[in-house]
Design a protein that fits this description.
single chain; GMP Synthetase, Chain A, domain 3; 2 domains; 9 helices
């Protein structure tokens, strides 16, 4: 059998997390229209035709504005050094710019077989697809080229069949029934953060960290207590909302996804605390589970 690791890399908002969820047919990574939604590597374990492919979603490579951003870039670079091959996801509807150039430079340093996945072809016509693929061929020596749609799962079979050919022979790394090695509390914290991303605007989502402080079971349901950290008092007020309305909306939306994840009823309490400039403090970034654990 074949067994190996595939990194999903690309600029923010290229569709990496949507692709991971589609490949796994399960929601493992949170998704939002806002850039830098993914802050940590997230693994999905796919057993495919007697082979095992471990996908690793990575934070989008970008020009960092704070220590958190720098650590996210370093984490992506670290992931690329520990896999067997790379999917480079490019937004077919977007334009090539300095961020894309920076991302390609990081990919080239890994010296691994790299597939170009031209995403969002569901929003393109045939000529646009051909023109984009031709342009990308001139930028980097990709091992394979796949026009795909993470949204409609177009061309997935060809992609997976070809991926297996590039993986090394070896025993599986994970049990057959395992789909992710992420702890439940991490996935719950990410669900809550996703709802904050979807419900709030401007700087508030990016200034947010979530920690699940308590998770207990009483034979009928789970009880969860989560802490949401922000950097400013005004951000705390926005998340709580008038008479707690925004916080209740976030709890309601998160609770539904958490119950699906856990397969059981759940009660969720969320508290909000101000932690000034936490995104520029290595100790806090490590404690909250973002970026590399050490540098």
């Amino acid at each position: 059998m074949k067994s190996g690791f595939v990194a999903l890399a690309g600029r923010p908002n290229a569709g990496k997390s949507t692709l991971l969820n589609a490949l796994m047919n399960e929601k493992l990574a949170i998704v939002s229209p806002k850039p830098q939604t993914t802050r940590s590597e997230i693994r999905g374990i796919l057993n495919y035709q007697g082979n095992q492919i471990i996908f690793t979603d990575t934070p989008g490579i970008h020009k960092p504005q704070d220590r958190l951003g720098s650590r996210m870039n370093k984490q992506t670079a670290s992931v690329l050094q520990g896999v067997d091959m790379i999917y480079y996801l490019a937004d077919g509807t977007g334009r090539f710019d300095d961020t894309e150039e920076m991302t390609l430079r990081m990919i080239s340093q890994a010296k691994l077989p790299t597939f170009l996945l031209l995403n969002k072809i569901d929003a393109m016509n045939k000529k646009q697809i051909i023109d984009k693929l031709t342009a990308w061929q001139k930028r980097f020596d990709f091992a394979e080229y796949f026009p795909i749609s993470a949204l409609t799962q177009e061309n997935f079979t060809d992609l997976l069949d070809t991926t297996v050919k590039y993986l090394p022979e070896g025993d599986p790394f994970y049990p057959e029934d395992m789909v992710s090695d992420e702890p439940e509390q991490f996935r719950i914290a990410e669900i809550i953060r996703e709802k904050i991303l979807l419900c709030t605007e401007q700087e508030v989502p990016h200034a947010t960290a979530v920690i699940v402080e308590e998770m207990t079971w009483d034979d009928k349901k789970y009880y969860l207590r989560a802490l949401v950290l922000v950097e400013k008092q005004g951000q705390k007020g926005i998340i709580i909302g008038k008479n707690g309305s925004m916080l209740q909306k976030i709890i309601y939306m998160a609770k539904k996804d958490i119950e699906v994840l856990l397969g059981a009823p759940a009660e969720l309490d969320i508290f909000v605390r101000v932690e000034e400039e936490w995104r520029n403090k290595d100790k806090q970034i490590r404690e909250y589970g973002y970026g590399l654990t050490d540098e």
